[in-house]
Each structure stands twice: as C-alpha cells, then as structure tokens.
Design brief:
Elements lengths: L1 H21 L6 E7 L17 H5 L5 E4 L1 H4 L8 E6 L10 E8 L7 E3 L1 H6 L6 H7 L2 E8 L9 E4 L8 E7 L6 E9 L4 E4 L1 E4 L2 E5 L6 E9 L2 E11 L8 E3 L6
Parallel strand pairs: 1-5, 2-4
Antiparallel strand pairs: 1-6, 2-5, 3-4, 3-6, 7-8, 7-15, 8-12, 9-10, 9-13, 11-12, 13-14
Length: 251
C-alpha cells in the first residue's frame, strides 16, 4: 500500500512538472509583423532606441521596431529575434534574424521590419506578393545576438555637449543580454553615480566628471544579473558621435 501511494505521488509530480520542464524560452510565439517605408530598404537612423546610424545598418539592415512588450521602455533595444512568417507557400522555414532598433506597433503586430528584413522572410521570387499582404502572421523567438569581430562599444551620443553633458549608448551587446543600468565613477566622491535612462538605449548625465570616464553597467541575461566594469573607457577629450571599443564580449 505504501509503495503504491509513493508511485502515485511520483506520477502526479511528473504530470505536474512535465509541462514546465518541456516549456522553453526557445519556443516560438505566434504574432504578426509588418514593415515600414524606407527609400533605401535599410533601417532608420532616428529610431526610438537612439542608435543613430548603427540602427540603420547593423545586422545588414535586418532590423525592426518592436511592440511595447518587447521594447520594454528601452531595455529591449538591441535584442535579437528569429521571425518567420507562417505562410508555407511564400515564406522560408528560417525566416529572418532581426535586431530591435526602434519602437513601433501596427495592426496587432510585435514587429515592424525594415523592408530588407521583411523581404528576407520570403522565398525566392515571392517577396513582392508578401509585401502586398502588408501584415502577415508570424512566429518568433529570442536568439543570442552575434557580431563577429565586434566587441562591446560605448558610443558618445550625438546630442552630447562637451564638457557639460554626456550621453552614451552601448553598441554590439551580444548574447541574450539586456542593459538595465549604467553608472559612472566619480573619483572626487569615491562612488558610482547612476546615469539616467534618457530614452531607448541612451543613458545620460549632466556635468560629468573631468578626465577619463570609467563606467559600469548592469546586464540581465542567460548568466543571470551581473555588473561589468569598463575602466577609463571614454577618454577625457571625448567627442560626440564617436564610439569607443572595449575589450568586453558578452556571452
């Protein structure tokens, strides 16, 4: 009787836990996607993430604006997704790999692709018909970002004004990582000072400390929550629009 009870208890546990064990963040989610107009089929340099020209050309311009639930008030900027449309006659099995560089919502969509990214979902010679639909049923999943040959860069945003206002944006954030916070070291105070998330992926601070700028940033990813440091990553004579490369490669 005791053995039978134990067997039934184990069976119940397996039945309860099996769905949770089988579910994975790698599962595809059903949604919809559309595209935006672009004279050169590339991304837009004025996207809500604040990436500038990087947002227009990164990932061979396979970029997208994301819905509020994926944009996450800017935390979702730079995330990578595999998006594939579900019409087997028009669409490839792999679809397209996009980087989130903007915010945007259409007709119950989660993605508004650049024209290049939208066309990449189609089979050969079916792109024109796919464009004619305007909005298509898709499925998507989060994937690690991969930027072969590029390490993490700290770009001084074009709106920065030396030496009184410094805004930065992190580029080439690889893996499945999201930047939650950025702090700047103040040598005179001997403490880390939190930078403000101005918008999108842009962090700023008025009256930054003089001299080389050391930063640390908090990332949430597959390895959990952690802080990483970039000592003296930005030189004392920093210039707006310039990106400074670090030695950091995120997993």
């Amino acid at each position: 009787m005791g053995l039978s009870l134990k067997f039934h208890c184990c069976l119940v546990c397996v039945m309860v836990l099996l769905p949770a064990l089988c579910y994975s963040q790698d599962d595809f989610v059903k949604s919809r996607a559309t595209y935006y107009g672009s004279p050169d089929c590339l991304g837009t340099p004025t996207g809500a993430c604040g990436f500038g020209e990087y947002g227009r050309t990164v990932n061979d311009a396979n970029v997208a604006g994301a819905s509020a639930r994926l944009y996450k008030n800017g935390t979702g900027c730079g995330a990578c997704y595999q998006v594939r449309c579900t019409n087997p006659r028009l669409c490839t099995d792999d679809g397209v790999y996009v980087v989130v560089t903007d915010y945007g919502e259409g007709d119950n969509t989660d993605f508004i692709h650049s024209p290049r990214a939208y066309a990449r979902m189609a089979k050969p010679d079916t792109a024109a018909e796919l464009f004619s639909y305007g909005v298509v049923e898709v499925e998507y999943k989060r994937i690690p970002c991969r930027y072969g040959g590029y390490k993490l860069q700290f770009k001084v945003h074009e709106h920065s004004k030396f030496p009184n206002y410094l805004a930065i944006v992190l580029l080439y954030v690889s893996g499945k990582n999201e930047v939650l916070a950025v702090e700047m070291w103040r040598e005179d105070c001997k403490e880390w000072i939190r930078m403000r998330r101005a918008y999108g992926a842009v962090f700023d601070m008025a009256n930054p400390p003089m001299g080389p700028v050391s930063l640390r940033f908090q990332v949430q990813g597959s390895a959990g929550l952690k802080w990483m440091q970039a000592p003296n990553i930005i030189p004392s004579d920093w210039q707006a629009g310039v990106a400074y490369e670090s030695d950091i490669e995120l997993d």
